[in-house]
Amino acid sequence: MSTAVRTTSRTPAAAAGRPRPRPSRRRGWRALGYAALVAVAFLYLYPFLVQLVTSVKTDADATQDPLALVPDPLTWGAFERLAQTDFPLWFTNSVVVTLVVTAGRVLFCSLAGYALSRIDFSGRAGLFGLVLAIMAVPPVVLLIPKFLVLNQLQLYDTYAALMVPLMADGAGIFIMKQFFDRIPVSIEEAARIDGAGTLRTFWSVVLPMARPAVITLTILAFQASWNELPHYIVASQDPDLYTLTKGVASLTSGQLGSGNQFPLTMAAALLMTIPVAVVFVVFQRFFVTGANEGGVKG
């Protein structure tokens, strides 16, 4: 007991006698921390910088020094050659498929999330558990079953094959259900007293209140369908149905002839990145708000 008393009496004194770090030393540690952060940020951004610079290089310059960040000479030839390929067709297909898939996923995931959150039916808890279980299944496992189903339904090599299987997913249903759970039931009861049915209450009252969740789901669905590749590979083989991801992948496999074609492939990848970046920057504020509210509820 006496040992414990001595220990507690010495600790504050030792702490009080500990020399404080000098201001110059604190500034040194802070500068070292900033330097480490800048180094990590540069390593993270370096592949994107290589992509950006390589797209304005010549084939010879890109082959001789592919990681250099200074083009010698600077040329827009890769973009001019890209315009003479099927890139405009791939871009159009990607825009059409992405817009339809995004709209469908937002609608169907919202309806499913509302049903699991509000409508009392037998097996609701089990069905929600099944949705959560599907989220744990690797998407690559479902590629062959998707191909078999599309082939049996005679949808293979059609636009419907590219769009329909992507119009609903477990993560979207989970996000919408979590948001609908936060909305007070009393608001819906007031709408029903005024004579609104279930669908009218969902569309006119509940869905507008879940705007952060809808915007979050819209961004996620847009990014997922724009960047999708495995599903498009098993859903079609017609070159007229190629999307950007499938078309750019064909460029990297040497479709346009001999040589590595680094500037051409990097130019295609750069143009492919722009729409997703624009969507994220425009809706970033809503995306962060929605993610935070979903995280608090979860």
Plain-language structure description:
The chain crosses the membrane at residues 31-49, 90-115, 127-148, 160-180, 201-222, 262-283. Its main location: membrane. Pfam families: BPD_transp_1 (PF00528). This is Carbohydrate ABC transporter permease. It is found in: Cell membrane. This protein has 298 residues and is mainly alpha-helical. It has a domain at 80-287: MetI-like fold, CATH 1.10.3720.10. 74% of the residues lie in helices and 0% in strands. It contains 16 helices and no strands. Helix 5 (87-118) crosses helix 14. The chain is flat and about 70 Å long. The two termini are 47 Å apart. The model is unreliable at 1-9 (pLDDT under 50).
What is the level 1 CATH name of one domain? Mainly Alpha
Q: Which H/E pattern describes the elements?
A: HHHHHHHHHHHHHHHH
CATH superfamily of one domain: MetI-like
Shape: flat
End-to-end CA span: 47 Å
